[in-house]
Amino acid sequence: MRWKSGRRSRNVEDRRGMRVSRKTAGGGLGVLVIALIAMYFGVDPSVVLDQGQLTQTSDTPYTSQQTFTPEENRLADFVSVVLGDTEDTWNELFRQMGRTYREPTLVLFSGAVNSACGFAQAAVGPFYCPSDQKVYIDLSFYRDLKQRHQAPGDFAQAYVIAHEIGHHIQTLLGVSQKVHNMRGRISKVEANRLSVMQELQADCLAGVWASHAHKTRQILEQGDIEEALNAASSIGDDRLQRQARGYVSPDSFTHGSSAQRVRWFKRGIEIGDPGSCDTFSAKSL
Q1: Phi, psi (degrees; rounded to nearest 5) at 44
Q2: Using an 8 Å Cβ cutoff, are 268 and 206 in contact?
Q3: Are strands 105-108 and 12-14 parallel, antiparallel or unpaired?
């Protein structure tokens, strides 16, 4: 991926090395445990973390490392460029829609972080909090993406950020609120299917970013799309469940199968139109 000459975003909040007090949502430690379990099975932790407001603070602080390796700082620079590129793309696309794009903040943290959606440790992976419209990522996740999920490459890393920005787009367009309102009125199986639609739409929106970014700034190199498709496939619910449980339970999917995630990301890249990402009306996912 050609990124080193890209514009750095001003919307990066670097909290690496900061001292963090453990704060939890209304459910206390149980919410954190559920979020960790959710992440293990491929569930977006924000679905768990945004269930309540911060109400408790323990006496046990968390202190992360104070110095960073050259590789960690390179990744921080990379993330800033990718975020800046998503800003350029979505500012233009929103302008074409007659809307104004509200740029999100991306928070870098190490070990643990407090957000408006609750306290989270790095194990939950990258997540988007609609309550404060911020994306949170511990850069150590990229090591897991490469080693645990066998999805190396800088464009695979960019896909992860673009997916979370996709959730921000859903918040700005009112999709996230509609999904949240519907969850309380439907069965667990139906709620899981609704979550899959939301996640696949975020994958498609990530593809839309990639399509426009390459057309306008020629960011892609040979093999980049394959890297992102491999990442999408590696974190499909079916693959994660088979690794964790030894079997697959489609009714419990919350992000979509590997094939579905690849299909919708490719759709976004090939068509390049946010309107083509309406997973909620699709006859087949």
Answers
A1: -65, 115
A2: yes
A3: parallel
Integer Cα distance of 17 and 281 in angstroms: 44
**What DSSP string runs through 92-159?**
HHHHHTT----PPEEEE-SSEEEETTEEEEGGG-SEEETTTTEEEE-TTHHHHHHHTS---SHHHHHH
Residue 146: Cβ-neighbour burial (10 angstroms; 0-12, 13-18, 19+): middle
pLDDT in tens, 200-217: 999 999 999 999 999 988
Q: Which of 6-20, 35-49, 141-155 shows the lowest per-residue confidence on average (mean pLDDT)?
A: 35-49
Strand 112-115 and strand 118-121: the pairing is antiparallel
Look up tokens 């946010």; give the residue: 274
Residue 4: is it exposed, middle or buried by C-beta count within 10 angstroms (0-12/13-18/19+)?
Answer: exposed
